[in-house]
Specification:
This protein is an alpha/beta fold. It has a single domain (28-213), classed as Methylesterase CheB, C-terminal domain (Rossmann fold, 3-Layer(aba) Sandwich), CATH 3.40.50.180. 30% of the residues lie in helices and 18% in strands. It has helices spanning 13-18, 41-50, 74-79, 132-143, 160-168, 185-194, 202-213; strands spanning 32-37, 59-64, 86-88, 100-102, 108-111, 117-120, 147-151, 172-176, 198-200. The strands form two sheets. A seven-stranded parallel beta sheet has the order 3-4-2-1-7-8-9, with helices on both faces. A two-stranded antiparallel sheet has the order 5-6. Helix 2 runs parallel beside helix 7, helix 4 packs parallel to helix 5 and helix 5 (160-168) runs parallel beside helix 6.
């Protein structure tokens, strides 16, 4: 949640102390939302993706750590709960607004400057392929201030450097409150390295996301 929220609703003092402070910044429309998570992420994503509006004007990119030898069933798992089209990303596919893209198992997912996806079998990062850092760092260069990075529950530090890159390029960074995460390592690392524009529970982040990406109603 925003740091300007009433004291009763703010994250713990320990969480706030761990996060580098940044003054509130004006921000334009978000065209890409990139979400990174691992342990506990299946449940957290269920809340976040279900909150996306059918009028979503942003593309949504999801990196969830998966075993490399297991085919992904994630698009089918969330299809009934999310009003947007959901698919596993394909190499050289253009990024389209209003679509949720899942990283494929055992491939890094990158966003090229011309806003197409690229798949890579380069070395694992933080023992993970796909890597959240790789996805966020490439997407930050393509979208700059028109991007939101979100780090949820997870058991590694993957995503911290990527979220820092998002902020360095002018994008927004949201992080799940580590005290409310099933695995606190990932959000804690992200806060320590990158800070955040918003910290909250998954439900709080989901509600804010729904408002942020909804297309304005016609007058």
């Amino acid at each position: 949640m925003d740091r300007s929220s009433p004291p009763a609703a703010t994250p713990s003092a320990a969480v706030q102390a761990a996060a580098p402070r940044t003054a509130a910044r004006p921000h334009g429309a978000v065209e890409l939302v990139a979400i990174g998570t691992s342990s506990g992420g299946v449940e957290a994503l269920g809340v976040l993706l279900a909150a996306l509006p059918a009028t979503c004007r942003a593309a949504v990119l999801v990196v969830l750590h998966l075993p490399p030898d297991r085919s992904s069933q994630l698009p089918a798992l969330y299809a009934a709960r999310c009003p947007l089209p959901i698919k596993e990303v394909e190499d050289k596919e253009p990024v389209s607004a209003g679509t949720v893209y899942f990283a494929a198992p055992d491939y890094h997912m990158l966003v090229e400057p011309e806003r197409r996806f690229a798949l890579s079998m380069d070395q694992a990062v933080h023992y993970s392929r796909p890597s959240i850092d790789v996805a966020l760092e490439s997407a930050a260069l393509a979208y700059r201030s028109a991007m939101l990075g979100i780090i949820l529950t997870g058991a590694s530090a993957d995503g911290a450097a990527g979220l820092a890159a998002v902020r360095q390029q002018g994008g927004l960074a949201w992080v799940q409150d580590p005290l409310q995460a099933q695995a606190a390592t990932m959000p804690t690392a992200a806060l320590a390295l990158a800070g955040a524009d918003r910290i909250g529970s998954v439900a709080e982040l989901a509600a804010a996301l729904a408002t942020l990406v909804a297309a304005p109603s016609p007058i």
